[in-house]
Amino acid sequence: MRRVVVAAAVGVMAQTAYAADMPDYGPLRGALVETARVVNWEGFYVGGQAGYGTSDMDFSDSTGSLAHQQLVLTTIENEYNVSGWPVLGKKSAHGSGFGGFIGYNWQWDDVVLGLEANYMHGNFGGSDSGGMGRSFTTSDGYTNGVYYSADATMKVKDIGSVRARAAYAFGSFLPYAFGGVSLGQADIVRTASVSGTQVNPSAAPGFQNINFSGSLSQVQNNHFIYGYAGGVGMDMMITRGLFVRAEWEYLKFAAPINTAVSTVRGGIGYKF
């Protein structure tokens, strides 16, 4: 009996000594793993932005209609298509602007979808001028010397887009792509001038030469232009609600002068 008591006492003392040597971790409540920060992107947001970019303009077909109006039903237009002569071409120019944006996001886990209206006021545009002369004989026997000159200017003052966004959140970062409708306002001036001399070999001497000239201009101030928009960007949340943005946007506008405006932008916004 004495041996059993002594053995039990020795066992208790050994366990007490082992427990005293163990560090005190406190109660364990799962693995000690830090969870990733979850950013809430859902809701309304507004912001301001500034940008710099390039406007690419194709003036090739911008004055042909004005030249055609002056030559309609003439032999030189019907047979030699003077209004289609390539007197103007493509031009590129740089510009800058500033503006703002407003939108709303819906979020499902890391997937974020949204709608946004974006606006920028700036100075994007360009101009071109040129001329071409030719001599030819038409089917009526006239020898014609014709000179066609033109100039065109387009200044895009206001550009914007209504866009749908698709994004995927990586913590504080929100890379996104977007597409939508481009809208703008521009001042457009176009002028086409046609002049020349027709020689009628059948006419009496002194009456063989027929000189002609004409010019037609069209001025469109605050002209509404539209097309499509696309681009990519990145929002980064820097504190609760406050975020910064970097973006590239491509805007395409249709007639009367085919124009593309490509800008890089930086901005700051607040999500409510």
UniProtKB/TrEMBL annotation:
Sequence ranges assigned to domain Outer membrane protein beta-barrel in this UniProt record: 19-272
Question: Signal peptide span per the entry?
Answer: 1-19
The principal location of this protein is membrane
Under InterPro entries, the record lists: Beta-barrel_OMP, OMP-like, OMP/PagP_B-barrel
Q: Where in the cell is it found?
A: Cell outer membrane
Query: Sorted alphabetically, which keywords does the UniProt record give?
Result: Cell outer membrane, Membrane, Signal
Entry-linked Gene3D superfamilies: 2.40.160.20
Please give the Pfam families that the UniProt record associates with this protein: OMP_b-brl
Entry similarity comment: Belongs to the Omp25/RopB family.
How is this protein named in the record?
Opacity protein-like surface antigen
